Structures are given as structure tokens and as C-alpha cells.
Amino acid sequence: MFGVMHLTGASPMEPLVEAAGLPMPGLMLLVGAGARVGATMGMIVSLGGLITNLEIPNDQWPTPSEADPSVIVMGTEPAFLTPLAIAIIVLSAIVLFKGAGAWSLDHRCGGAPDPHEEDSL
Predict the structure, then answer these.
(1) pLDDT of residue 93
(2) Strand, helix or coil at 2?
(3) Nearest CA to 32 among 116, 119, 115, 107?
(4) Rg (Cα) of the chain, in Å, rounded?
(5) What is the DSSP string of 24-80?
(6) How far apart are CA 34 and CA 27, in angstroms?
(7) What per-residue confidence (pLDDT) applies to 112?
(8) Per-residue confidence of the chain (121 residues) as pLDDT tens digits?
(9) What sign does the dihedral 113-115-96-32 (CA atoms) show?
(10) How many C-beta atoms surround the C-beta of residue 49 within 10 A?
């Protein structure tokens, strides 16, 4: 299971997050901790997904069978995958270059300078 299935409960994320050594990923996301690292990883993974989406012909997309979900059959590509990958790449690039924002933990710990503050030199 991969992609959107992690969000729908088809594949539990807890073992993956524990194996990665992330103590509280939801809290990290909420407070903006490690945003640039996450954005970099999101861009890399989504770029791989985008390349895969573009390489597989539309009528040869591996899809679970309706009769038996454990059997994979060739079907049409879901329409949302390519735009989703592009959106993640673009939004991750914004976070990578601009940071998580003034309210984020990264900013408060000195991760990125505030563009609205003037230098006092």
C-alpha cells in the first residue's frame, strides 16, 4: 500500500513512523519543525511518482481487481495522481525556499531570517 492509502487507513503509518525514528510526526508538522527537510523529501518522492505516472501508459495502470482486491489487473490511471504530484512538488519548493513561516518552530529557533525585519548593522 502506498500514496493516498496511508491516509485512508488501508496501510497503517505508525510502524513506518516508528521505524524512521520520528517521535511525533503530526506534532512536528503542526508546529513547523523540520519543514525544509520534509519539503526536500516530499519533492524527491513526488518527482519519482510523477516520472512513474508519465512512464506508465494510461491503460496499463496496475489496479486492484473489483472481484478480488488481492489480484492486480491493468486499468486506467486515476486522474488525480499527476496533478497531485505536481502540486506537491510546487508547494514543497515554496516551503524549501521560503521556510515554514513566522509562526513555525523552525523560524523561532533561528532556522530562517524574517524577511520583514531590517538588519540593525
Answers:
(1) 94
(2) coil
(3) 107
(4) 19
(5) -HHHHHHHTTTHHHHHHHHHHHHHHHHHHHHHS-GGGEEEE-SS-TTSEEEEPPPTT
(6) 11
(7) 54
(8) 455 555 555 456 667 667 777 666 667 777 888 888 889 988 999 999 899 888 888 778 888 888 887 888 888 878 888 899 999 999 999 999 988 888 888 888 875 555 555 554 4
(9) positive
(10) 19
Handedness of CA 71, 6, 88, 84 (dihedral sign): positive
β-pairing, 72-75 with 61-64?
antiparallel
Domain boundaries, the chain: 33-99
Q: How far apart are CA 89 and CA 49, in angstroms?
A: 10
